[in-house]
Each structure stands twice: as C-alpha cells, then as structure tokens.
Amino acid sequence: MHLAAHFPGVNSTTVWTDPRSRSQIDFTSFEHLARTAERGKFDFFFLAEGLRLREHNGRIHDLDVVGRPESLTLLNALAAVTDRLGLAATVNATFNEPYELARRLATLDHLSDGRAAWNVVTSSDAFTGENFRRGGYLDRANLPQVLGSARTGGTPYTRAAEFVATARELWDSWTPDGTSRPFAHSGQHFDISGEFTVPRSPQGHPVVIQAGDSDEGREFAASAADVIFTRHGTLEAGRTFYADVKARLAKYGREPGDLKIMPGVTVVLGETDAEAQQNAAEIRHQQVSPQNAILALEQIWGRDLSSYDPDGPLPDIDPDPGSSLVQGRVRVADPLAAAAKWRALSEAKGLSIRQTATEATARQSFIGSPATVAAELERFVTAEAADGFILVPHLTPGGLDGFVDQVVPILQERGVFRTEYTGSTLRSHLGLARPVWKS
C-alpha cells in the first residue's frame, strides 16, 4: 500500500474554526505535517496550487483570505528538514514554460537527493489567465485566437502532454556520466533550443503525477504519468476506474505497475466505530457551515442565493449556465444536471440546503476505529480499487497525527505497509523504475 499526505490548504475540507487549526502559510505548519508523514513512512508529501485568489460575487472567497504560497519554494525548504519523504508540487502546465519548470524540478530533485515529484495540472480559465503577462489561456473552443499564435492548437491536455515530453527531453539532455548536450524541440506548442543547465538528477526524471478523472485525463495519465490522483466514492466506482486506467497502459508499452492509482481520501477515527461516526458528523457540520452551504449551492446555480435559508428547501429556479458569479473555482460541466441531482437527493431524504450540501459534497471517507479503518484501506487495495491513498486531513497541521500513531502500526502489523524505508528516492518508495536514458 502507498500512502501520501496532502496539505489541506484553502478548501472546504479544512475546519478553520477548530481551536487546534493553525496557520495555512507559516512554515512550521508545513514542517509539522511533513515530519509527521515521514514518521509514518509515507511515500510523499503533496502540495496543491493556487494561481489566483478565487472570487465569489465579486469578493475574495473566504477560503482564500490567507493566500497561497508557491509550492516549489516550500518544498525546497522542506527538503532540508526531511530525509526520505517524497516532495510533490502541483504546477500548472498552462501558465509555465518547459525550460524554467524543468530546471526548478531538477533542482529540487538534486537538493532532496531524489525525492521530487510534479503534479501536472492544466487550466482553461480566463480569470486565472489575467494574472499572466500574455493574458492568454487555453480555451477549449477557440484556442489559436486566444493566444494569438499560429503554432497553438488542441486542448490544455495536448499542451500538457507536449510540456511533459519536452521536460523529459531536457532532463535527458545530460548524459548519465555528466556530459551536457544541446537540445532542440519543435512542436505544436513549444519551439526551444539551447543547453540545459542542470545535470541529470538522482531520479533521472522527477516522478510525474496527474490529477483528473475525465476520459482525456485518464488517457494522459496512462501515456505520461507515474501516479494518478483521483477520487471515487465507493469500492465499486474505484474498481471500475482502476480497471479502466490500467487497461489503457498497454497501448503505450507500459505495465500495470508503472502507474499508481491513489485517490484522495479523508479519515475520521474514534475509539469505537460509533464514536468515529459521531466525530465525522461533527466535522462535516463544521465544514459545511450555513454560509458554506449557500456558497456550494451558488457554485452550481451561478446565482446570488444569499436570501435563501440554509435550513430551508433548495431553490425552485434553474441554474444560470453562463454565470460569472464564481471565478477561479471550477464550475460543474453541466449545472442543470448537477442541480437535478441535488434536488433528487433533497427530495428523496427530505434534506435542507445545508443538509444536501453536506451529503453531496462529502469526500470519500474512511470512518471508524483504527482497526476498522486499517481493514477498509486494505480491502480497497486488495480489491484493486486503489494502489494507495492520498490523505487529506481536516486540521492544519496536526490532522495526520492520529492516523500515523494509531492506523499505520496496524497496517504494518498486517504486512501491507512498510515498517522502514528501503530506498532513498521517491521512485524507490513507489516501486517505479528509474527512466532509461534516451541517447
């Protein structure tokens, strides 16, 4: 089983009002969670990305008021206070360039002695694109005109695929014996040549992670990623996703073990299963406050619903698909279908707005005593619903402490999780081969 820790950051998973919750930007918070993950022998520590403060109805969204530090800067600092833990940064392939990012990732891999990873994400968001000098973004409908370049075409994923391939060409431009060679790449999105400044790093290539559940995202992961960060709510949904993605690997000459599937999950513990269920209910109640319930609803409806009672019924009006009420957050692809799903859930169970939002937005959770949670985690891996999990705690920075102290020892006793690190690089933790150098 593979395990990773996600710093909860600025999202609705985090319970801000808990007195144990600390800073989202102070280095000691990141250090605490990373040290805890390493104490638990986790594979890697995972940071999200935020390239613009999100807005809601023209105001900065409450969950963004503390800001978002830059991932690679933080991970370079964490490399100095950890020894074995992998360090994974989410970096957008839409608003960066291959040469610069390849240098930064290779540098992290050197400074950490082979523990760097890149979570590749894309964006088709004009609101975020305004933060960048060219003012461009990869619009799915009208891409060449947006960036004003005849070279540009395709989708954010086609750019991401070429971006990753170009970065790997740069990493391979130094031979294993330390000789630099000129590189040249001319493609649909990038036309670059020169010499790369960073020698081949300890892992050869940093580990590549991809986040996404769409068909295009699955195909990209099968062709180019080492890990896929996903979510699925049930064992059966996980098994379906697992089988689908693993089946795509063969066409790219890859084996099932070459891509690790690791859904993001939450864990709530208690001395008994009943106590854990009570704890989980209290946490969800804190996560979905009356205000957050209305905000979640407005993200789908695209309308100002502040006059609605969170403890009352859902709106009887339809969503506005073209709304710009919410900016910087991903709106659902089909608001009308999502609203219909929420209405069906509300009507079937007699739920209020807040209760519906609480149930509809719940991330996949493992709830129970340490023994129960350990058994469920093992069941998902044994049933081929996942290769491991990325844990997203609800508290910063101590939300992982209980899992490491109480669940990890049980997993170790069951023989499904390491008791010690057996290698020094992230690739060794994940059981991934070092990339063969391409001459």
Automatic annotation (TrEMBL):
Entries under Pfam families matching the protein: Bac_luciferase
Alphabetized GO MF terms: monooxygenase activity
Domain of life: Bacteria
Coiled coil location: none
The Luciferase-like domain, residue ranges: 22-382
The EC number(s) this enzyme carries: 1.14.-.-
Keywords attached to this entry: Flavoprotein, FMN, Monooxygenase, Oxidoreductase
Keyword Oxidoreductase annotated: yes
Gene3D superfamilies given in the database record: Luciferase-like domain (3.20.20.30)
Membrane-crossing residue ranges in chain numbering: none
NCBIfam families: FMN_nitrolo
Classification via PANTHER family: ALKANESULFONATE MONOOXYGENASE-RELATED, C2H2 FINGER DOMAIN TRANSCRIPTION FACTOR (EUROFUNG)-RELATED
Family designation: Belongs to the NtaA/SnaA/DszA monooxygenase family.
Name of the protein in its database record: NtaA/DmoA family FMN-dependent monooxygenase
Organism whose genome encodes this protein: Streptomyces silvae
